[in-house]
Amino acid sequence: MSKERASNFAAAAGLLLAAPVVIVPGSAIIMMIWARWAFYQRHPDYVQHSAPTVSRAISDPFIGEPFAAAILAVACVIALALVPLSNAYFATIRLRTEGNPVARASLRRLMYVVLAVQACGTVGMVVCTQVTFRQSHDIHMVASYFFFVFQAIAILLSGILATRLARLPSRDGCPYLRLDSTYSRIRRYLAFVTAGFAVFYLFLFVIKGFDLPIPEYDVYHFYTIHEVVTISAYIFHFMLYAPEVFRMTRSLVSTGSWRLEAGTMA
Description:
single chain, 9 helices
């Protein structure tokens, strides 16, 4: 195989594996919008007095069953993508903390916490879509809390981790995940913005039950819209890992091993 054909093949392999990181989670955003729209069409009496949350919308089996399938696909993509991305983070920690064992141990512990919290958030996401209000209101609500809280914490901690790594000296041989790249900077900033969205969502969740000087329907409608915005921010943050998945796959196919040269990120 010629050098040019090998390069094209490696790029095609990278696109093949990176595309699901964008397409599958992106479809979940579309499904959320569709779920609310479909519920408005199918339950006009309900929406006359209250705006539907995503949880309420998927309690209709017509809406909930395809929605649950889409979210299960998202969970599978997250689980598969975490394997190479975790390796990239650990490799970055190892390289950037050479001669600094205290920082290395601290960052590795933080990385393990991120993975554990992300796992909790992903499990909550799957359970709250598989078990709707029709099956068990209590299980659904507990799983929803798990999803919103742990996913927000995972994203916030990933932003803290990336910020701490970016402050360490860059060394030759920095691997696949370039923390000074455009996408990495966007993810760092978006991590803190997303955490802010989650806190504001919690604030709306609390105040929607109080007597306020504005109509209750308007408060609840804004609350349900912000729910979609917050979940979309969760998803978009993950989608921004697609360039790293592409580059790692391209490097693996091109060389047969995970190269650590910074040139692979150019």
